[in-house]
Structures
1.
Amino acid sequence: MIEEEYKYKRELGEGKWDKILKRKLVELSVADNYDEAKHEWIATGECWWSGLSEMPEWVTTHPRKCLCSHNIVYHFEILNTENGIRECVGSDHINSYLILRAIAEDTGLDIDSISEDMIEKWINVRVESMKKTAWWHTNGDAFTTMFDHVKDLDMRVNVRKVGKYYNHEYKQYFDNTKIRKSSKGTYGAPTYKMASIVWRWNSPENPKRQILTRGYPTEKLMNDLTLFYAMFEMHQTLTENEDKKLAERLLEVQKEKDDLISRRQRYMEIERNKMIASNIEENQNDSEFEDKCNYYGIRMFSELDGINDWERKFLSSIKDWIMSGKEPTEAQRQSLVKILNRDNGDVQMATEKQCSYLRNLGYEGDFASLSKHDASAAISTLLEERRKGYE
């Protein structure tokens, strides 16, 4: 069972560099043979990338070299637990015995129960961390500069249209947009629709944002950022033109509001002037009518002095007759005096027939002081109200 398990775990072979490493490990160990010496060594978990400026002490004896003398990029520290010697090897020579002890001590598992997948994961975690450090060391300044420069414009340009909405401030319809989460088309082509750079890198609304899942951007994101950065001025010009049109639209809307207010003010001014002119004309007419009434020896009157439609029409026609400069005929004068004299001298009280009729119509006034003239007016009013109620 143990033999089968160890078949898929790493072991140094008989190649050139493997043989050199075996020899040097034995030379640095307490044991005098590799099969025993290999169990003295353990991977510490410390890693260093050759592109970093600060070199740890355990690398200084073999800068950019594995213990086997082979050129390497990623350096892994190993420790001899018997004599305390520290050395470094490349990712190709972190063999299973070095890692098995590290995993066993970290997890408390028996060495024989540690799988190849666990060894791979141990290496990948450290290599990935090293890659992240290396990437930021090489590209970090350029990425940060470009990203900070384009991030606001990215949220404006790299969007998709999803219907329209009406904006009351601008009084027009606009495209409703949402962040584009996936790219479409051929990279660099005029029709290429780029996914939002901010969305992919560090948007709080994206649970898979690369700043958390990887710690450094993918090659695709970096390529898109470089392309967008190169086209920044073109995108900025387009958005500035859009903003200019929006500003002009706001001015148009404000002008429309101002024009409407101005028209309303002019209309109100015209109506006020008409009312003033009408009042002046009415006062002038009243004064002229009063002079003419005095000339003909009758008191000033209006159609309101009539108690029925015939009298009101008669009084209105006589007023027009007099104002046109014509003298009332004798018959007109007698009818006019008869109507107007009701208000002078003895007041004729309402007849019993009028009072009875008013009761049937629902009149609730004081019958004792009701004149014949007022009774007639009340009957006309109540009949008109009843007629309107039937309509």
2.
Amino acid sequence: MAATWKKIAFEEDVLLKSIIAAKGDLIVGSANDAATILSIGTDGYVLKVSTDTPAWVDPATLAVADHASTHKNSGSDELLLSDFGEPTADVEFNGQEALNFCLQNSASPPATAVLGKLYYDTDDNCAYICTAVA
């Protein structure tokens, strides 16, 4: 019969479960090779780290900055699917409504026919769906 060997840890190498005083306590590093407890915060508060010190704060006190505009050439806060390039696989809606959905606009059918692909013909103002591919 084969033997199984497991290392036995010394007490100073492990965090004892007795360090947890209450439900919701978090173990956080307080210094190199040192741990302390951050007690659960007020309901609805979020964890914020400031200068490597975690603390619970009311989310209403957090400053909200416009970050999307700094990532777009147009300076707009609106992110469009086209900003990320054309999807290379199915886009799952999972029953969600597609708002402001736009079909591919073209004066002629798309060069690549794909079963189920939609496009809007700008010459005759009609929508078309590919129902067969030869």
